[in-house]
Specification:
It contains eleven helices and ten strands. With 332 residues, it is of the alpha/beta class. The strands form two sheets. Strands 6-5-4-3-7-8-9-10 form an eight-stranded mixed sheet. The chain starts with 16 loop residues before the first helix and ends in a 7-residue tail after the last strand. GO terms for molecular function: 3'-5'-RNA exonuclease activity; nucleic acid binding.
């Protein structure tokens, strides 16, 4: 089967969950459908929220409906086969009508907002938001240009556990991704973590962000996470389970919570708190990794437009060493 290597997407006006489920049924039906404190005001806020919203509370898995505007296209859920380079329905008009194949639509940047960005020490940010408690189940990365704030590319893979039994994995996936209606996609596409890292290294290598022979560190780029758990705890634990050495490019990262605290002088416990305080509507499904990564990227864009400078906040001295936190005032 020919595989298309592509950059994904989703968008802006969100649908109620029952309607979203009806859109996602082609994924679930059969493999034959396999796409095989203080509030800081900002003059550029409208470039990212496109509306002034009251704070909302969104429960796990819920899709929030953002207010519509005449400039918005109807929102469509991202084709999760496409994000992994496996969509075989690009010539199917009905499929294209139902699912988005352009992640950039969720991450627009206006010229006026880009003009506000201060000089950054890095060229690219790699927004990472892992999913999975026992083992990693989803590995999504959104690449953003540090100066223009524009979406560059994305990497997205579902991850197949190596020590969980088949029955437990099936039950876990049904509980985790079944509520989004994309559990069939996971079963069709998930690969072991070791293979995910091999493909990821090829991806960052193609973008000239990494060369194994140069020590394995990222070149003028850094991971951005919402908290320290992803790279302090989960990736090292998964590497032990998968019996591989922790790659050098995971040795340092930017915890957006710490940058947010020091820039806005207020604490945010997570992505949803940041978005509520910044009056930004959520795009997609909370706790679907690729959608959470897009929303964290949108918060990052907003902070850059407000004048924030992104800096490394945590660094590990070695693959087995302790993590050194570089900000005195940080989220613990």
């Amino acid at each position: 089967m020919a595989m298309a290597r592509v950059s994904p997407s989703s968008s802006a006006r969100l649908l109620p969950y029952p309607l979203l489920q009806s859109f996602l049924r082609p994924f679930s039906s059969s493999v034959s459908h396999l796409c095989s404190s203080r509030r800081r005001s900002s003059p550029v806020a409208a470039a990212f929220s496109q509306a002034s919203l009251s704070p909302h509370t969104v429960s796990e898995g819920q899709v929030m409906e953002a207010p519509s505007t005449s400039s918005r296209r109807p929102w469509k859920h991202t084709c999760l086969y496409y994000t992994q380079g496996k969509c075989t329905m690009m010539n199917d008009a009905m499929h294209l009508e139902k699912f988005s194949h352009n992640l950039m639509e969720d991450l627009p940047v206006s010229a006026s907002a880009a003009d506000k960005v201060k000089l950054q020490k890095l060229d690219y940010f790699l927004i990472l938001d892992l999913e999975g408690k026992v083992e990693i189940l989803e590995f999504p990365v959104i690449m953003i240009d540090a100066q223009s704030m524009e979406f560059v590319d994305s990497f997205h893979r579902f991850v197949r556990p190596t020590i969980m039994s088949e029955q437990r994995t099936t039950e876990y996936i049904a509980g985790k991704y079944g509520k989004f209606g994309v559990d069939r996609v996971w079963h069709d596409t998930a690969i072991p973590f070791k293979e995910v890292l091999q493909q990821f290294e090829e991806w960052i290598g193609n973008h000239n962000l990494w060369k194994k022979e140069h020590g394995g560190s990222l070149n003028s780029a850094a991971f951005v996470t919402c908290g320290n758990w992803d790279l302090k705890t989960k990736v090292p634990d998964q590497c032990k389970v998968s019996k591989i050495k922790l790659p050098a490019y995971f040795m340092e990262w930017i915890n957006l919570k710490d940058i947010y605290l020091n820039f806005y002088s207020r604490r945010a416990t997570g992505m949803m708190t940041m978005m509520r305080e910044l009056q930004m509507p959520i795009v997609g499904s909370h706790h679907l990794g690729i959608d959470d990564s897009k929303n964290i990227a949108r918060v990052l864009q907003r902070m850059l437009a407000d004048g924030a400078v992104m800096q490394i906040t945590a660094k590990r001295q070695s693959a087995t060493g302790d993590v050194k936190f570089l900000f005195e005032d940080r989220i613990r």
